[in-house]
Give the backbone structure.
Amino acid sequence: MIRSLGLLMCRILSTGVPPAPVLVGLLLLEAGLRLEAQTPRPSDFVVDLEARPSATAPYLRLSWSQRLQGNITAQRIHRRLKGDPTWIKLADLGLTTTNFSDATAAIGVEYEYWLERTLNATPVTVMPQTAMGYLSAGIRVPALESRGTLLLVLDQTLLTPLAPEINQLVADLAGDGWNVVRIPVARTASVPSVKALIQAAYEADPENVRMVYLFGHVPVPYSGNNAPDGHANHMGAWSADGYYGDMDGVWTDVTVNSVGASNPRNHNVPGDGKFDQSLFPSPVELAVGRVDLSGLTKAPTAAVTEVDLMRRYLAKAHAYRFKTGAYTAIPRRTLVYDALTAWMTGLTPLHWSSSTLGRPPLVPIDVALSGQWFSTNYAGGKNYLLGYSGGYSGYESTSGLGSTTDFGTRPNRVVFMGMFGSYFGDWDSPNNLMRAVLAGNATGDSLALASFWAGTPHYFMHHMGMGETIGYSIRASQNGPIAGGTSLLPGAPRWGSSPPFGGTHTGLMGDPALRLHVVEPPRNLSVSSASGKVTLVWSPSTEADLTGYHVYRGSSPYGPFTRVTASPLSAATFTETATAGQTVTYMVRTLTLEAVPGGSYYNFSQGAQLTHVVNGGSGSSGNPPPELAPFKLLWQIGKDDVPGTVPYDPYGEFSFENRIDDLAPGRVTRLPGDPLYSATANPDRDDDYYCVGVFPVGFNGLRAALNVPKQEPYTAWERALSNADKTNRVHFMLGANDVNPASRLRLNFELPTGGFRYGAPINRLGGGFGTHDLVVRFKNGKGVSTVIYSNRLERATRVSFEVPVSKVFATAGANSIEFIRVGPNAQSVAYWLVFDYVSLESAVPKSVTTLAGVQSLAARAAAASSVGLRLSGGPILSRSGAGSSSPVAGGGIVQEVVMSGGQRYLSLTYSKPEPAPADVVYRVEASGNLLDWSESGLVPMGSVLEGEFRKVTVRDSIPLSTTPSRYMRLRIENLDAEGGDSVEIPSGDAPQ
C-alpha cells in the first residue's frame, strides 16, 4: 500500500495531474510516511570507508563511522584485487568496531574493500537491511600510462561542422593515454549495423579495446520490459546504450509484447528492433558513454543549435582536462538535493563522495534546500566536483531542483552529477533533463560534464577515487549482479517490476574517459631546434606533491606516443637529438603523487603537445603563436575625456578619495534594480570597486559569496591615489576563453593630472605634476599576485599594454587589478595622482581549434615564459594632443627573448607610422630596477617598412644570464604637446 501510494504521489508531482477525488488523502499519507522515516537518514545506510597509509607494515589502516548502532547485527570486511570477480572475507568484526588494519596489503597494489554491515531495520518497507561501504585503496599505486583503445563512434552529421573540435578531442584522448579509433555512422543506420562496426573493431584487438564514446545522435538501442521508476505507464523498452558494450551476450527480439506505456517510444513487440532483455545477458566488456544534445530546444532555446551545444560541450571537456578556465581549481566537495529521503534513494551520492573525495566534515557535503540548487549559496555560486539530486520528476524537471530550461540558462557549477526521479532516466526524449545538464548555459559557468540516473539501481563509483575513468565505474555498476561480473551488491530496490540491480536501462550521459582528479599539465610548452638538436621548455608546475615530468614522442597529435624519458624529469626542460626535416609531435605530462581517501596513487596530467619540424640548420625554428580575435572590452570605469574639450573634467564622474587605505574585500555601492539596493543605506565609495559577477567565498577575504548584478556606479571609484589613500582595486570576472593561456589582456588607463603640496620637489621637466611611483598588480582568484606595471611618473601619462594570461595566472571567475602609489612619501607633503579612466580588454584565440589547442600553440608566449617575463606590450593607444591624430595608430609592440653570440637577450619590437610625425620621439629604454632607465648601449636589430608603418626591433645589451632582472620599455613623447603628453609601454621582469 505504501509503495503504490508513494508511486502515485511521484506521478502527481511530476505530471501535475492527480486523480482529483483522492488527492487530500494521498497528501496526508505521504506526509505520514515522511515523518516515519525522519529518524533514519540515507547517510545512515552508507559506510564511509577511508584508508590511512603508513610508512611501515601494515601499510593500510581502514576506518569508518558507525550509525544506527542499536540496529547493527553483524559487520564483515572483504577485499579483492581491483576488478577481480571474487571477494575474500578478511574478518568478522565486532558490532562496535570502527577500524581494521590490513596486515597483508602491499605497496603499489590497488585493492577494493567492501565493508558489509547487517541491520535489524524497522520498518522493513522503508529501511534497507544492509549498509554498504566500498573503497578503492592502495599505497603509491603506479600511474596508468596507457589506457587502451577507445572507439569514438561519430554521428556523421557532426563530422563537417565540428571537424576541428573532434580532432582536438582525439588529440586530448591520445594525451591521456588512449589509442582512438574513429567509427563514423549515419543517424539513420540500424542499431545492429552500428553494433557490428563496434564488434569488428573489438574483435580485431580484444585485449586492448576497452571503451566506446558515442558522439551525437548515434542510433539508440532500446531494450526490456521494465519500469525502473515504478510507473506502470512507463513500462516497456528503455534506451539501452550498454548494448553497444556487450560483445558476446545474446540479445533477442521475440518474446516481449508490451504496449501499455503512454509513450509509443517505449512499446516493445516482437520483431520491432527493440530487444527483450531487461538485464544484460552477459557481463559488459566495454565501458560506454554518450554525448547527445539533440532535441534540446529549451536548453537554452531552439535558437541555439545542436552543433553549438556540442561545440560548447567539447570546449568544456577540454578545459576540464587541461585544468583551465572555470575548471582551474574545482574543490573536492559534493552538493546534494534529496527530496526522496523517505524512499531511501539517497544512498548513492553519500556513498560516492565518501569513497572518492573524503569523509565529512573534512570534505564537505552541502545539502541544498528545495528550490535553491541554482542559488549563489549552492551550485549557482560555488564549484562542486560531485553532485546528486533526487526528487519527484518528469522528463524535463525535478520538483525542488529545476527544469531543462534552468540547466540551459542558469549556472550549475557541478562537474559530475548523479540524478534520480521519474521518467527522465529514459533519456532519449525531447528536452530530457539529464541531457540538458550537459548542455549548460552560454555564459560558461555551467560545469557539468557527466550525468547518470542513479537510484534504481545503485551505482558504484569508488574506482574513480584511485584514478579510474567514470566509464569504468559505470561498467562495473552495470556488471554488479551478473554472473561473472563485478559482484557489487547492496540489496534490491523495492519496486518489484524493476530488475534487482544493473539493468539494461543503466548508462552514462557524458564523455566516458573523464577522470575525477585532474592534474595541471605543463603550461606554455615551447619547442625549438637547430642542427638537429630539439629543446622543449615549459613553465614549472604549481601542483603539490609533484613527482616530475615525462616526455613522449609521436608522429601526430593523435598518437600513438612513445615515452622517451626513463624516469621523471625534475627540471621543466628536455633536449634530444632528432633527424633533420622530420615532423615530430612532442608531448609532456606532469606526474604527481595523489593523496586520496584510499591512500595514494601516481597520477598523470593531460599531455601538452607540440608538433615540430626538426631544423637541421644553424638557425632556430619554432611554432607560430595562435591567431587572436580582435580585443573586446571587458569593463571600463569612467569616460575617456579628451584634452582641449570644454569643459575638460577628466575625473568629474568619480568620487573624492575617502583618505583611508581600506582593506579588501570592501563594500559594494549598488544601483536601483539590484535586489540589495537601498536608497537610504547604500555603502559609500572605498578602495574596492566591483564589476558584475558572483564573487566566491574566500576571494580577497570574502566570508560569504558576493553577488553583484550591476557594475558599481562610477561614483564608487575614488578619483585619486595619494599618500593618505594610496590604493584602488577593481574586482571583475573572466570567462573560460579569457583565461585560455594563449589569450591576452590589455589594460588601459590615463593619469591626466597629479600634484603635491607643501614643498614637494617639482618634476625634472619643471612642471607641477610632481613625482609619483606607481605599481599595478594583477591578483588571480587564488590570491596569486603579479606585478604588471611599475614606473616613476613625472607628467600626464596614458598607458596601454598587453599581458599574456599565462603570465599573471588569470583564473576563470573572480580576479583583481590593484593600483598603488608606493612613493615618494616625504614627511608633511601631500601627493595625489588622478585617474581619467581605466579599462580592460581581452583577445582570445580566433577558432575553437586554437582555443582547444592552447597548450600546443602558444609558442611565442612560451618563449617569454621560459625566462619569466611578466609583461608584454600591445597595440599602442595614444593621443599626441588635442585634436591631433595618433602618432602610433595601428602600431604594436612585441617583447621576445633572442639569441645572439650564444647569449639570451630581451628584445623589443614596435611599429610607428612612416613617415613618423616630426614632433614625436620614440625612445626604447632598458632598466634593471624599474627606476633607472637608459637608451644607451641598446643594439638595433632591424628596421622594416611594412605598408604605412615601419617595424623597428631593438635588443638589450646586457645578457639575461648575467642579471637577476631586466626590463625594457617604449616611451613615446610629443615634444609640442603642452604638459608633455606621453605614452609609456613597460616590459617585463626576466629573473634568472
Remarks:
- Residues 964 and 992 are 5 Å apart (CA to CA).
